[in-house]
Structure formats: C-alpha cells, structure tokens
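Appendix B. Chain record.
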Amino acid sequence: GGSWPTPGLALSKIPSNYICVIGIFIISGLKLKTDDVKTALKSWKAIIYGIISILFVTSAIALELVKTLDDHFGSLQMDSSGVNGTGNGTDMGCSSVNSTEAAPVLGPREFSTGLQVFYAMPCTVSSGVVLVSQMNGNYALSLLLTVIANLVGIGTVPGLLNWLGKFSASVQLDAAKLLLKLIYTLLVPLLFGKALRFIPKVAELVDKHRTVLKVTSNVLLTILPWIKISVTSDRGSFDCVMAVSVLAIFGITFALHAVLLVLNTVAALVLRLEVPAAKVIVVLCSQKTLAVALSVLTFFPASLGDQGLMSVPCIIAHLVQIIVDAIIVSAWLSYDKRQELKNGGGDAADRGDGGGGDDSPDDAMQLVRQQSELMDIEVDGGDFKLKLVQFESST
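Structure tokens predicted for this chain:
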C-alpha cells in the first residue's frame, strides 16, 4: 500500500471496509465451536478473573500507561529536517506535525490514538487459543474466554475509549454511535455465522474447508490496513513519520506487553490456578485483538486524524505480542519437558483439557514464522516506508 497505493485507493471508493469486516466475522461465526466450552466451566476462578482482566484491568492499565508516556515524551522533539526528507508540511495527512519543523519523537498524535484503541480491545480471536493449545494449556477455557470477551467487548470498547481515551480536546467520541456500528458490523455477522453452523450440512462444509475459510479471512483482514495505508501514502502522511518514532513504538509495545504478562502471572499465582488454567491467564489475557481494533478505526471521524497512521502502531503491537508470547510458549514447553523427564514421564493430566498440541517447542514458533512477513519496515536515509506483505488472521 505504501509503495503502490493505486489499487488500495480504488477499493477505498467503495464500502470495502464494511464488506471486509462483515465477512471476517461471518467466517468467525461459522468456525465457532461451543461443544468443548462446557468443560471449561469448572475453572470458575480463572473464568471470572480472565473476563475482568481482558475487558477492564489490562485495558485500563495499558491506556493509562500510554497516556502517561504521551504526556512525558510526546512533547520531546527532534529536528525533522533531513530526516523525513520529502515532506513540505502542507500534506493533508500531516495533521500533527510540520515536517519542516521539529517533530515529536513518539510520532504524530495518530500513533498515540492507535495505541489507545489497540489496548482497549478484548483478547485475540485465534492466536491466543492456538498458543494455549501448543503449550498444552486448558484449550476449552481459552476458547470460552475468547468467545465471552469478544462478544461482551463489543459493548465495553466504546465506553472504555470514551472514559479513558485521550483524544483531541475538540473531538468527542460518540460511544453510543460506535457501539451501534460494532453491533451491526461485528456482533450480528458473528451470530449469523454461528446460526448457519447449526445447519448440519453447513457445519460439515465448514469443517471440511476450514483452511479455505482461514485463507479467505486472512485476505479480508489484509485488505483493511492495506486500504488505510494506501490512502495514507497517497496523502503523503508517512512523510511526517521518522524512523525513531517507529522504533519507539516497538519499545513501548514491548514494555506494555511485558507489564500485562507480569500482572497476569502474579494473578495466576495468587489465585493458585492449576497449571493448564494458569497458562491461559498468562498468555491469552495479555493479548489484544487486531481485527476489532482495525474495525473500530474505520468508524473514527476524520477529525481524529489519519486512520492509516493510527493502524501502524496497532500492527506493530500485534506483531510484538505474537513474537514475545511464542517465545514464552517455547520456553514453557521446554521447562515442562525437563520436568517430565525429571519426574519419569510426568502426569498426563497436566497436559490440558483435550486441546493441547504437539509438545515440541518448535511448534510454538510456527505462528511467528507465519507472521514473520507481516510487515517490512525500510529506513532509507531517514525515510519511513511501510509494506504489508502478509497478514495472519490471529486476532
């Protein structure tokens, strides 16, 4: 989208965003299985804490930290002359900074907005469940939390953004309007897809062609940021972004994810959860969904800034959390394997609730390899370029 914006610009002329979002969640509903969820109800402590953590605790803490960082470092400036190169300060998308003057180290104000949106989201839709499965955690519990959090999250996200979000003083986010849009573009398609699954022949076809549906969902999810970045590139908004700002976002998202991981680890220890349930709390409850974040951005008014710039920190944060969590899963699997050998084979009961995968640490890194080409950031003479190469529907 950044190198060749023409196709993305053409798609932006039609309601492609709505088509993609609705398609993604119809597919999510078609693939949604609830049979295994009943077995997860036994872990009531993990369920209660997990829902509270995903929807409120982690979001509130992350949003406050983002605002604090923005207050303390957002005003730090660097001379952008000779760094951004081509901007003239009059481009439509350069809403936050004149590229011929000093530019904020943390990037344009859209970066802060994008981070706030991302961390107000519920947990990932599929990558968290995949990682929990690979680390022999409680698969059924992870599925239950994912379903509940993403359904309830449609109602909580607008309120969180309106309550804790820090946007331009002249802009008020209409939480009721955003909630209504989320209901008919996310919740209704999801429930429609789930309803279709009750038809035996449909369920059979879905299970038979899950790979095709996954690829279709990936393509639709790729189109969303591709269109935004194409429009942003055509406006020249990336001329406002310095390489140091992108690196700062990587550092910030890594630090924020580490805070959430520590928080949920301590909670799992305090609650004395069984190991399979603890794995769910540590990994799943520390993640945020990219798909819903990008969907929410499509409903933001133009007065809040360029949506393409807002999507950049969301994509970076998603990539960081997947890489970090895959490393944690690999390390945890290695530890479990050593303990199993030490105990002469271990107890099979500790391997989860029927959703565990292969216990090889290499499998835990498969998700990272699938997303390793999610984005390619080029820094050439200080210029910032973003290319979307592959987009995994792991949100």
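Further analysis of this model is presented in Appendix C.
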